[in-house]
C-alpha cells in the first residue's frame, strides 16, 4: 500500500474549513480539560460521545483525536504549577517540573512540556502512518480464535498492570464484563440478568456507563477530595515562554529517549501512558546519577522532558493500534472504539477498505492537531493556567449538568438518568477505594467481541475448544501475555523487596 498518496488525500480532506474547526475545537477542549484538576481526556470524550452523534463521522473522530492529544498537553500544567497532577500520566512530570517552577522557571517548564508532547506525538504519528496499514493487513488473517486471544490479552494485561493489586483490576474487569452481558442474548434470544425489567432488555448503554464512571463518578470523587484537602497554592509563571539554546540542547536527548520508550506501549494494552512516563523518568534519573554534578532534585529539565515525550508518543501509537487492530490500550481509546461502533464502523482491516476517506483524514489530522496544540500551549500556557482559578463548585455543577443532558439526549428515558446516578455512585466508590476504571470500560467494550469470537470458534470446531490455541497467532499472543505478566510480577517483587529493605534500614537507624 502506497501510503504517501493516501496521506495526501487525507490532508485534502482534513484541511477543509469544517474539519479544521473541529480540530481546533477538539484541541481547545482537550487542553482545557487536561489543565483542570482531576479531569482528563477520557472524561472529555465520554461527555462528547452523545453529542457527536449528530456530526459526520470524520468530523467527530477528528475532534476526538484533538481531545485525546490535547488532554496530555494540558495534563502537566497543574502538576508543574501546583504540584498536583491532574491525571496519573502527569505524575512523573510533576517531580522535576514543579521544582523548576519553584526556582522561577515555571514558563520554561511549561515550554519544555509542550515541546516534548509535540515531539512525542509527531514522531508517533509518522510511525502510525506507515505501520497502521501493515498492522491492518496482518489483522486481516485473524479469525475467531485470534480475536478471542486478542481480547484475552487486552483483558489480562490491562487488569494486571494498571493497578498494584491485580485482584482489584480483575474485579473491575469482571464488573465491566457483567454489565456487557445484560440484555437479550443475540443468538438464543433469551434475556440475561434483566431482572425481568423491560428497561434492561436492550442492555445498559455504553454511553451511560462511560459518562457515569468517567465523568459523574470522577466529579463526585474530586469534589470530595477538594473539600478535604483544600486548595493548593499556584506558582505564577513569569518570564520567557521559550527555551534557550542551552536548555534546548539539554532537553533534546531526553525528548528522543522518552519518545522511544513510549512508542511500544502504544501497542501493548498496559493501561495507557502511566507506565512509559515513569520508565522514561527513571531512565533519566539513572543517567543523571552518572554525572559529575547530578541535577535531579533541583529542577532537572530532562526529568520533565522525557515523561512528556513518552506520554504523547504512547497516545499516538495507541491511535494506530485502535485503527488497525481494534485494540484499545486505555479507557479513552476504549470509548473511541465504542464511538466507531455507534457509527456502524469496526476498526481493523475492513475500516481501511470501507472507510479510507475517514481513516486517512483522521491520520492527517494527527499532524494538524500537533501543530495546533504547540501553537496553543507554547506561547499561551500562562493563559491556560488561569483556568485553575475557576471556582470548583461552578465547574463540578456544569459537568454534572452536561452528564445528565448527554445521557438523556441519547435515550430520552428517565430510567437512563437513574442508571447514570447509580453507576456514577459505583464509579465514585471504585475511585475512592482505588479500583481502576480502565479495565471496566475495556471489559464492557471488548466483552461482546470476546463472547462472539468464543462462540464462533467453538461452533466452527464442533465444540473443540483446543481451536483457541491451535494457530500460531493465538499462541504468540498468549506467549506475549505471559512475558508481560512475568515482567509485571517481577517489578512488584523487586518493589516490595526495596520497600522492606528501606523499612529495615530506617528501623536500624532509629535504634542507633
UniProtKB/TrEMBL annotation:
<feature type="transmembrane region" description="Helical">
    <location>
        <begin position="317"/>
        <end position="338"/>
    </location>
</feature>
<feature type="transmembrane region" description="Helical">
    <location>
        <begin position="20"/>
        <end position="39"/>
    </location>
</feature>
<feature type="transmembrane region" description="Helical">
    <location>
        <begin position="465"/>
        <end position="489"/>
    </location>
</feature>
<dbReference type="InterPro" id="IPR002823">
    <property type="entry name" value="DUF112_TM"/>
</dbReference>
<feature type="transmembrane region" description="Helical">
    <location>
        <begin position="199"/>
        <end position="223"/>
    </location>
</feature>
<feature type="transmembrane region" description="Helical">
    <location>
        <begin position="358"/>
        <end position="381"/>
    </location>
</feature>
<feature type="domain" description="DUF112">
    <location>
        <begin position="20"/>
        <end position="442"/>
    </location>
</feature>
<keyword id="KW-1133">Transmembrane helix</keyword>
<feature type="transmembrane region" description="Helical">
    <location>
        <begin position="393"/>
        <end position="410"/>
    </location>
</feature>
<feature type="transmembrane region" description="Helical">
    <location>
        <begin position="147"/>
        <end position="163"/>
    </location>
</feature>
<keyword id="KW-0472">Membrane</keyword>
<dbReference type="Pfam" id="PF01970">
    <property type="entry name" value="TctA"/>
</dbReference>
<keyword id="KW-0812">Transmembrane</keyword>
<feature type="transmembrane region" description="Helical">
    <location>
        <begin position="109"/>
        <end position="135"/>
    </location>
</feature>
<feature type="transmembrane region" description="Helical">
    <location>
        <begin position="46"/>
        <end position="69"/>
    </location>
</feature>
<protein>
    <recommendedName>
        <fullName>DUF112 domain-containing protein</fullName>
    </recommendedName>
</protein>
<feature type="transmembrane region" description="Helical">
    <location>
        <begin position="169"/>
        <end position="187"/>
    </location>
</feature>
Amino acid at each position: 500500500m502506497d501510503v504517501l498518496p493516501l496521506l495526501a488525500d487525507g490532508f485534502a480532506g482534513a484541511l477543509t474549513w469544517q474539519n479544521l474547526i473541529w480540530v481546533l475545537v477538539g484541541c481547545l477542549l482537550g487542553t482545557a480539560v487536561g489543565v483542570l484538576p482531576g479531569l482528563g481526556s477520557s472524561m472529555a470524550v465520554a461527555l462528547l460521545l452523545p453529542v457527536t452523534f449528530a456530526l459526520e463521522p470524520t468530523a467527530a473522530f477528528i475532534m476526538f483525536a484533538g481531545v485525546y492529544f490535547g488532554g496530555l498537553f494540558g495534563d502537566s500544567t497543574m502538576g508543574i504549577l501546583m504540584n498536583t497532577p491532574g491525571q496519573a500520566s502527569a505524575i512523573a512530570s510533576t517531580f522535576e517540573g514543579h521544582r523548576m517552577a519553584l526556582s522561577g522557571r515555571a514558563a520554561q517548564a511549561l515550554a519544555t512540556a509542550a515541546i516534548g508532547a509535540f515531539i512525542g506525538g509527531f514522531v508517533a504519528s509518522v510511525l502510525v502512518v506507515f505501520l497502521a496499514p501493515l498492522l491492518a493487513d496482518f489483522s486481516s488473517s485473524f479469525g475467531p480464535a485470534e480475536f478471542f486471544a486478542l481480547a484475552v490479552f487486552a483483558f489480562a494485561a490491562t487488569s494486571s498492570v494498571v493497578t498494584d493489586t491485580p485482584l482489584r483490576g480483575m474485579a473491575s474487569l469482571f464488573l465491566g464484563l457483567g454489565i456487557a452481558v445484560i440484555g437479550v442474548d443475540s443468538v438464543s434470544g433469551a434475556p440475561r440478568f434483566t431482572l425481568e425489567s423491560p428497561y434492561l432488555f436492550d442492555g445498559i448503554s455504553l454511553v451511560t456507563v462511560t459518562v457515569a464512571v468517567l465523568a459523574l463518578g470522577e466529579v463526585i470523587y474530586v469534589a470530595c477530595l477538594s473539600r478535604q484537602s483544600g486548595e493548593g497554592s499556584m506558582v505564577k509563571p513569569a518570564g520567557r515562554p521559550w527555551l534557550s539554546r542551552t536548555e534546548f540542547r539539554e532537553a533534546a536527548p531526553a525528548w528522543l529517549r522518552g519518545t522511544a520508550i513510549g512508542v511500544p506501549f502504544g501497542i501493548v494494552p498496559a493501561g495507557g501512558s502511566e507506565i512509559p512516563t515513569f520508565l522514561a523518568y527513571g531512565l533519566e534519573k539513572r543517567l543523571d546519577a552518572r554525572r559529575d554534578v547530578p541535577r535531579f532534585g533541583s529542577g532537572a529539565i530532562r526529568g520533565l522532558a522525557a515523561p512528556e515525550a513518552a506520554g504523547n508518543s504512547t497516545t499516538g501509537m495507541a491511535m494506530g493500534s485502535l485503527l488497525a487492530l481494534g485494540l484499545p490500550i486505555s479507557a479513552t481509546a476504549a470509548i473511541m472504539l465504542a464511538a466507531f461502533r455507534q457509527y456502524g464502523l469496526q476498526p481493523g482491516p475492513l475500516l481501511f477498505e470501507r472507510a479510507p476517506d475517514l481513516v486517512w483524514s483522521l491520520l492527517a489530522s494527527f499532524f494538524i492537531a500537533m501543530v495546533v496544540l504547540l501553537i496553543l500551549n507554547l506561547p499561551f500556557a500562562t493563559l491556560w493556567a488561569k483556568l485553575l482559578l475557576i471556582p470548583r463548585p461552578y465547574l463540578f455543577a456544569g459537568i454534572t449538568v452536561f452528564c445528565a443532558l448527554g445521557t438523556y439526549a441519547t435515550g430520552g428515558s428517565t430510567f437512563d438518568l437513574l442508571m447514570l446516578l447509580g453507576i456514577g455512585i459505583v464509579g465514585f466508590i471504585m475511585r475512592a477505594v482505588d479500583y481502576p476504571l480502565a479495565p471496566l470500560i475495556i471489559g464492557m467494550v471488548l466483552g461482546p467481541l470476546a463472547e462472539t469470537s468464543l462462540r464462533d470458534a467453538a461452533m466452527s470446531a464442533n465444540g473443540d475448544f483446543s481451536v483457541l490455541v491451535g494457530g500460531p497467532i493465538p499462541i504468540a499472543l498468549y506467549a506475549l501475555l505471559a512475558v508481560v505478566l512475568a515482567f509485571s510480577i517481577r517489578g512488584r517483587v523487586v518493589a516490595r523487596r526495596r520497600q522492606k529493605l528501606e523499612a529495615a534500614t530506617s528501623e536500624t537507624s532509629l535504634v542507633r
